Amino acid sequence: VQLQASGGGLVHSGGSLRLSCAASGSIGCINGMGWYRQAPGKQRELVVWITSGGSTNYADSVKGRFTIAGDTAKNTMYLQMNSLRPEDTAVYYCKHQACGYINSWGQGTLVTVSS
Questions:
Q1: Mind listing the pLDDT tens digit for each residue in 44-93?
Q2: 75: which residues sit within 8 A by CB, 6+ positions away?
């Protein structure tokens, strides 16, 4: 599976962005998909994960502000980010996990939130 992330950019605090992650290749059986982020000098962390059954797991820091969604017809996953804060500044990565726990990562898209 190949993943192409897009939609990052520069936004003021309180603003919104929508990230996209387009999947291609042999998608087949899937365990789940999600978004991670890595801020400068920090480890990569989970933002949100959605299972094939539709269960979601959001990081506490983004609950109520970020929403994951998908368009199966377009094989695209989205992350709607509202009420952005400077601490949301990071490179955002999408991840796909196929059955058998085979992981694929997108290339990352930079989100910068100015105060």
A1: 999 999 999 999 999 999 999 999 999 888 999 999 999 999 999 999 99
A2: 22, 23, 24, 27
The first and second tokens of residue 76, run together, are 């695209």
Is residue 44 within 8 A of residue 35, CB to CB? The reply is no
CA separation for the pair 15, 93 (Å, rounded): 20
The beta strand positions in the chain, using DSSP E, are 2-6, 9-12, 17-24, 30-38, 45-51, 56-58, 66-71, 76-81, 90-98, 102-105, 109-114
Q: What is the pLDDT of residue 26?
A: 80
> Torsions phi, psi of 73, nearest 5?
-65, -30
Token pair of 42 as six digits? 């920090």
CA distance 82 to 4: 22
Contact 16, 109 (CB under 8 A): no
Per-residue model confidence as pLDDT tens digits over 19-43: 999 999 887 888 999 999 999 999 9
